[in-house]
Amino acid sequence: MSPEMIGVIGIIILVIMLFMRLWIGIILAVIGMVGYALLTNWDRSLLMIGTEPFSHAATYAISAMPLFILMGMVVSVTGIAGDMYQAARNWIGHVRGGLAMATVIACGGFAAVTGSSMASTATMGKVAYPEMIKYKYNERLAAGCISAGGTVGILIPPSIGFIIYGLFTENSIGKLFMAGILPGLSEILFYIITIFIVCRFKPHYGPPGPKVVLKEKIVSLRGVWSIAVLFILVIGGIYGGFFTPTEAGAIGAFGAIVIALATRRITIKGLMRTFRETAQTTAMIMIMIAGSMIFNRFITVSKLPVAMGDFVAGLDVSPIMIMAGIVLLYLVIGCFVDIIAAIVLTLPVIYPIVMILGFDPFWFGVIMVRLMEVGAITPPMGLNIFILAKTINIPVGTIYRSVFPFVVADFVNLAFLIAFPQISLFLVNLM
Amino acid sequence: MINLRKAEKLIYWISETSAIIATVVLILLMLITVSDVLIRTFFNETILGIVELTEMMMPVIGFLGIAWCALQGGHVAVDILISSLSEGKQKVFDILNYLLAIVITFLIGWHTLQQSFFIKQINVVTDSLDLPKYPFMIIAAVGFFLMTLAVFILLLKTFERREH
User: Could you tell me if B40 and B46 are in contact, meaning their C-beta atoms sit under 8 angstroms apart?
Assistant: First the structure.
């Protein structure tokens, strides 16, 4: 059997085992070890599994990951989500659909800082949903904007997804962060336009909220300015070349802890809990990275990426058609697996092909992450949808229908991002 | 059976303590990195060897928590198909999962340990601080061994539930 064939069989077994509810990091490591042994020998394979996890963990770039996770964990327990919503609501709540627009903005802002679309969905479900229902918003619009809003976070830095992507593809994490900013903002804009259009045709879906005087508007910013300043410091520092992503993560986490303690938004007990949760999330990602690096070695010796690259290059179709196939693949994957798992599962095989096709690695990172976000709000999985259904106690089916206009917006947004790579690359090229 | 309970408690305790050590190291990493940025900004100096310190801290932060994560049910899996099966059938997949995890984490731990002995012999150190790398590799190996034990406990629990 040719090495390439063994590689293909390895991938097929991976897909089968994936649906057997086995831990992703573990199956990647097992298949990687066995496949590598078949292609070389057992001694070399065992040596490889003894070196790969350590050597990929002991790198400087990877340290940005736990630091940003810590920052996100601390911010998410401070109750700042509620303040963000109040501030956004006070500024734009009085226009038609304004409360829904405020929800998208607050969701995006919160998810951006915490990096967790699930935490954002759950918190906004508790804060923004009752408010919208109180002002006679249609429940579908209210639920839809919360589910969709949470997905913005992973594009806007600091993004754990981009850190992992950068580690795997050896691209600058700082530049990847910058690549995500404009696409993330464009996503928020597209959602706001969607709400505007929905309310234009069905004004009773989002009646105007209460008007708020200027003084109150300014006062409402008090709860959010400190985190906003921290966010600008962290991202601005990376953009200006003052910090590495690791340093930015350390400053972000330290700043978040100081702000949370100084404003008494967190207790020492709460802080200890966030520390433990950070260790747990970091471990969860590290085991997937270790597994994927082992799997990657197997795929590399199978020469499958080269063979697939040759195959793809020899095809008589334009690269954009192949990209369309990859887009479809990620949309499907996004429905089943969370973003970080999907990155570690697919990159060893997909990334070399994308490079052979001549696409920009930063642009592809944005498209890939964006695609899987769409997956997070589409059936049959849609993690955000399950969480929201649980939080606000309405049927999953209703929420699936409620996100439909937002999924349409996502596709239009995606088409824009694919057609105009400049949106993703503008800030990268300025660095 | 009593001894098994004790062993279980002990493994829980060790796993949690390791995760706490991982967090303490993370906090340390945060503090030295922030200090380095401040020193650089105000005094134009830098902490010697901060990059390699960070590199050696990362396996500790990353791998000392994996056993605790397993005990907390934190590792990622796709349960869309399996969750619709009967409880008995689900258990079969759980057992398979735990067995695979026990084997691979033990093998990774064992061979990481072997490697650490090797790099000790040939005296592999970091670039500017001359820190020996092998102790950090041993810690990584310990993380994997702990996960083997933790998953073994999870496996035993699956059988226990079946007996009830």
Answer: yes
Query: Count of CB atoms within 10 A of residue A96's CB?
Result: 18
* Closest C-alpha to A371, from A418, A313, A404: A418
The complex scores an ipTM of 0.93
Q: How far apart are CA A272 and CA A263, in angstroms?
A: 17
d(CA A8, CA A307): 11
Binding-face residues of B in 83-142 toward A, CB within 8 A: 83, 90, 93-94, 96-97, 100-101, 103-105, 107-108, 110-115, 133, 136-137, 140
Structure tokens at A365: 């990172």
Residue that has been written with the tokens 């471990």 in this structure? A283
SS3 A7: helix
Q: Measure Cα distances from A274 to A113, B10, B40, B152 in Å.
A: 15, 24, 29, 27
Degrees to nearest 5, angle at CA B12 with B67 and B161: 95
User: Which residue type is seen at A302?
Assistant: S
Q: Is the dihedral of CA A40, A46, A47, A52 positive or negative?
A: positive
What's the predicted TM-score (pTM) here? 0.90
**Residue A82 to residues A113, A206, A372, Cα–Cα distance (Å):** 14, 20, 27
Q: Three-class SS of residue B97?
A: helix
User: Which has the closest alpha carbon to A86: A215, A191, A188, A217?
Assistant: A217
Chosen for mutation from A23, A277, A336, A372 (greatest number of chain B CBs closer than 10 Å) is: A23
The tens digit of pLDDT for each residue in A14-37 reads: 989 988 989 999 999 999 999 999
On chain A, the residues whose CB falls within 8 A of the CB of B63 are: 53, 57, 283, 286, 290
Report whether pLDDT(A124) > 90.
no
* pLDDT digits 0-9 by tens, A240-284: 889 999 999 999 999 999 999 998 888 888 898 888 889 888 999
User: Structure tokens of A426?
Assistant: 């503008």
